[in-house]
Amino acid sequence: MRPVAVIGTGQTRHARRRDDVSQPELVREAAVAALRDAGVRGADVEAVLISNMELFEGRALPELWVGDAAFASGKPCMKVSTGGTSGTSACIAGFHQVAAGLCDLLLVVGYEKHSEGHTQTGMALTDPFWDRAVASGALGNFALSVSQYAAERGVTEAQAAMVAVKARRNAVRNPHAHLQMPDITVDEVLASKMLAHPLRLLDMCPQSDGACAIVIASEDRARKLCPRPAWIKAAVTRHDQPYLGDLDRRLASMRTLRDAARVAYGLAGIDEPLRQLDVAEIYEPVTYAELAWYEALGFCPDGEAGRLIEDGVTSMTGELPVNPSGGVLSTNPVGASGVIRVAEAAAQIHGRAGDRQVPGASTALATGYGVYAWADAIVLGAQA
Amino acid sequence: MTRPDRPDGPLCVAADMNLSWAYASGAPMERFCARLRKRRLEALRCDACERRYLPPRPLCGNCHQRLQDWVPVADEGELVAFTVVHTPIRDGRTGEMRPSPYGMGLIRLDGADTTLNHFLSENDPDKLRLGMRVRAVWRPHLVGAMDDIVHFEVLP
Question: Could you tell me the pTM of the whole model?
Answer without folding.
Answer: 0.97
